Amino acid sequence: MRFKDKVVVLTGAASGIGRATAKMFAKEGAIQVLSDIDEKNLKETYELLKEGKNKATYMKVDVRNPEEVKKMIEFSKNEHGKIDILIVNAGVVRVGPVEDFPDEDYDLLIDVNLKGTYFTCKYAIPYFKKQRYGTIITLASVAAHIGQVNHANYCSTKAGVLGFTKALALDLAPYNIRVNSVSPGATDTPMLQSDVAKQARDRGVEYKVVKKEFEEEGVLGRWATPEEIASGILFLASDDASYMTGADLRLDGGWTAR
Ligand SMILES: NC(=O)c1ccc[n+]([C@@H]2O[C@H](COP(=O)([O-])OP(=O)(O)OC[C@H]3O[C@@H](n4cnc5c(N)ncnc54)[C@H](O)[C@@H]3O)[C@@H](O)[C@H]2O)c1
């Protein structure tokens, strides 16, 4: 058990990559504080934990709301006395050409993907600094590294997450805190499914046509499972990655190798 009694705080735990990560940490003995804005599916994640359930708590947190984020961090510290691992996973995607992009969608991307990442780290950092250890993993994307058609605004938020992560790694290294990101490629989650469905509707083509295009972006020719991304997150959180900080782990099936 790589994470026996390590305290993990994880955002976006109700779905996709977050849910797979929660399940994997539970199997490896972690104590978890799981959060999401979607309470119903969050509870479902909790129910799915099986052996790790008695060591997990879940709470509704909107990462756009600094007070809620602060409460989550304080809960973890008060209840468990420490935070070992912070996974900044909550995110949203909105797609479309820039000239037609609704401003409220733009605000949502910035508020969740960038400000949410900032708030989640902001309130955890003082505790990490006091402990003089800890590790933070953010969720960037292939979209942080390359352009994707109709994803300009999403790409800008994920490139922002990448820059934030690298700079934060420099600030926190003197405190023995490692900060890294993961960049998934096309991963089979509700987020990607909704992205593909919208593009199919907008272009008037079948879902499977757009799905195939996404599958062919990676040289492995298929989507990742959420578990394949969770494996990378757990690696970065583990002592096996003890010399890694300021790094980005691309789990993209070779998408950015072309
Ligand atoms: N699926 C992919 O292909 C892919 C690729 C690259 C990067 N990512 C990134 O991975 C992360 C997880 O994505 P996923 O594919 O599992 O998506 P998902 O939609 O399945 O899960 C995202 C979770 O974030 C939660 N969330 C959204 N807004 C929130 C808010 N304001 N406060 C708290 N929680 C909120 C949602 O409720 C959901 O449970 C995201 O940051 C995403 O950008 C995903």
The low-confidence parts are: none
Question: Which percent range fits the helix content?
Answer: 40-55%
User: Which value, in Å, is the CA radius of gyration?
Assistant: 18 Å
- The oligomeric state of the chains shown is single chain
- Helix and strand run: EHEHEHEHEHEHHHE
Indicate the CATH architecture: 3-Layer(aba) Sandwich
CATH topology: Rossmann fold
Strand fraction band? 5-15%
Cofactors, ions and other ligands in the entry: nicotinamide-adenine-dinucleotide
| DSSP helical segment count | 8
Count of structural domains: 1
User: For the largest beta sheet, what order do the strands appear in spatially?
Assistant: 3-2-1-4-5-6-7
Mean residue pLDDT: 97
The number of E-state strands comes to 7
Largest β sheet strand count, sense and barrel closure: 7 strands, parallel
